[in-house]
Amino acid sequence: MSTTQRRRKVSSRIYRRCRVAPSACLLRSRSTRARAIRDRNGAPHDAQSRQAGGVRKVDLATGVCTAQPSLLCPQGHHICGCMAGRLPDGRIVCAGTTRMFSSDGESSEADEEEYHTMAGVLEPPPHGSPSGASWQWRALPEMGDAHRYGTVECVQSDGRFAVFGGQDTSGADTSSCEVLTLDADGARWSTLSPMHEPRCGFACVAIGGCVVVAGGGGLTSAEVYEEGLGRWRRLPCSLPHDGHTH
């Protein structure tokens, strides 16, 4: 199959997916983009861009993009990675890591970095709010582990938002997994059984009461998490190549 044919095939899949979901919420940390620009060009970005977390709602049928309330981010921090998922009731959960630079101002050495976890939910205004009131972010308890890069997420069949793997703040790949429960008793994170192998930047999909993960960082293996049993099982297959799989 030629490169052009492969692109057309992928585009067709995306189009079919867009017809199912008429709109999507695109969460992108402006600071992440600014950081990438600084890394490429060697020029620092301003403090305001480091703290901003832009959110856009995209109508997949028309391509119209509208601004939404920005992600909640502590003063002096910027979002270096975030994951988002749509819950069955329409709310959007976002979870990730913020980074704060500290420097004594007297040295040319690189700034020290401090990592903190963050989480929030974008939800409709409370009952009885004025007509036209917009959806707003509400802060949620922080995740237990901070991740710099490569963590993936999905919404499980039971409607809970889960995060898997990624790199920890030391740069090592992890196998840790957490799940967020939002119910009448409040919001809380709890740990899931760890994956058999540490993974970063891998493929992940929830289907039929299971979560399937594959690849990531030189791995060709795949495994499945059985939600009802709370355990991971290795799959007897391998990817045709190694490297990061998205």
Description:
- By secondary structure, the chain is mostly beta strands.
- 14% of the residues lie in helices and 40% in strands.
- It has helices at residues 3-20, 30-41, 47-51, and strands at 23-28, 54-59, 65-68, 78-86, 92-102, 112-123, 136-139, 147-149, 152-155, 161-164, 167-168, 177-183, 186-192, 203-207, 210-214, 222-226, 231-234.
- It has a 4-stranded antiparallel sheet with strand order 4-5-6-7. A 4-stranded antiparallel sheet has the order 9-10-12-13, with no helix packed on it.
- The radius of gyration is 19 Å and the shape is globular.
- The model is unreliable at 6-23 and 28-51 (pLDDT under 50).
Task: Sum this structure up briefly.
A four-stranded antiparallel β-sheet has the order 4-5-6-7. Strands 9-10-12-13 form a four-stranded antiparallel β-sheet, with no helix packed on it. It has a four-stranded antiparallel β-sheet with strand order 14-15-16-17, with no helix packed on it.
